[in-house]
Amino acid sequence: MIYLDNAATSWPKPPEVACAITEFLECAGGNPGRSGHALSIAAGRLVYETREAVAELFNTPNPLRVIFTQNGTQAINLVLKGILRRGGRVMTTGVEHNAVMRPLRALEREGVHLTIVPCDREGFLSLTDMERAVQPGTSLVVVTHANNVTGTILPVTRVAEIAHRAGALLLVDAAQTAGVVPIDVQDMGIDFLAFTGHKSLYGPPGTGGLVIGDRVDVSTLEPLVRGGTGSRSEFEEQPEDLPDKFESGTPNGPGIAGLGAGIRFVKSRGIDVIRVHEVALTGHLIAGLQGIPRVSVYGPEDPECRTATVSLTIEGCQVSDVGLRLDEEFGILSRVGLHCAPAVHRTIGTFPEGTVRLALGAFTTLEEIEATLAAIRTIAKS
Amino acid sequence: MNTQGVVLFHTTSAALRAEKVVLKANIAGKLIPTPRQLSSDCGIALRFDWSRVDQVKGVLETARVEIAGIHPL
Questions:
Q1: CA A354 to CA A312: how far, in whole Å?
Q2: In terms of domains, do A259 and A110 share one?
Q3: B29, containing H or E segment
Q4: Domain range holding B41?
Q5: Are A274 and A159 within one domain?
Q6: What residues of chain B lie within 8 A of the CB of A32, using their CB?
Q7: Do the interacting molecules here have an ipTM over 0.90?
Q8: Which residues of B touch A52 (CB under 8 A)?
Q9: Across the 382 residues of chain A, what is the mean pLDDT of every consecutive 10-residue run?
Q10: Domains in chain B: how many in total?
Q11: How many structural domains compose chain A?
């Protein structure tokens, strides 16, 4: 079997991830932050270790400004619903995932003004267009670090400059990049970094989070969920302390411990090493696909400008048929269709049919890419 | 036995952070259930030897760990 659906969730996970989850359940079964006994403290320590690992990975000085969520979507919702109010203004791009678009469309119905800056057919954003489109009074700019269809990487640092000049904060959706493209929230001027744990950070599903930059006054951010935090229990009002303000209810301790192990794997192998590996294989895949008659490849040709996610179509073939043949005849697991991102498919001209998406990971090999190219050649010939 | 002290916190995360900071500075510290007579803010507190109270205060301040109080036991 060849697993090429790493943009949906990475597989396999490093073995130490399962070990960390088991260790949490067997050796630290308490509820972190709720009691003072040994097992509760042990659980709290494991959660805290991951908090610190996240802070270090994204270079934020205070681990208490790392908020754990169930996934990237929840982190994005926390910021959008926590900041935007009726009459407010928000700006985003034409290549956002539905994790961003659906909450924004809902907020638009509630009276938030939404501006969308279109991107070109390769998924690139024009900074001039963005600068021109930014309206006075915009409080938030939302941008994906890389979309999940063509993997085109957007210039976050430059977008941050534009956002800040306009007096807005910047939310970055790093679902496709966290763990494989270096991210420094201070250097890049990121105010909110929403990340998922189960893709290039190699943690289990059900993990993710939000890094809140120093520029953000957290008293202006409403929590998505309120409830027990194990702190200030005498009050029936939500505490303002971080991370508790945004972390009500028992956290996914085993998952967060697994995420910690995933991050340690990424650090020990080296983000740069993983990135170089993926860029090389992506370049090889794109070059091979371009040589196959009837195959169209989407997104930038230069693998340095994208993540290891490659979308293609074969003239005269339904994407669902291609996906099924890849799976049944060749044991190659891809994802076909619209990838929860209709905006991206409209941008690259593949809406509503969608594309076949091949998404590589740290464990993908050159042999697997060769076998995939041979399979696509066979399908395109028939 | 020497007098012990405790540092109180608003959140468990701050207590866990403080434990790491204190241990790294080679000061003996142990997380214990917060003595009820002192506070109910957060379930755990950091116990240490009161003779080192100034050092504990110093390292926590340097690391910018927010505390809710510091008391002899």
A1: 9
A2: yes
A3: strand B29-33
A4: 4-72
A5: no
A6: 12
A7: no
A8: 20
A9: 98 98 93 86 94 98 96 98 97 98 98 98 97 94 98 98 97 98 98 98 98 96 94 89 96 98 98 98 98 98 98 97 97 96 96 97 98 98 90
A10: 1
A11: 2
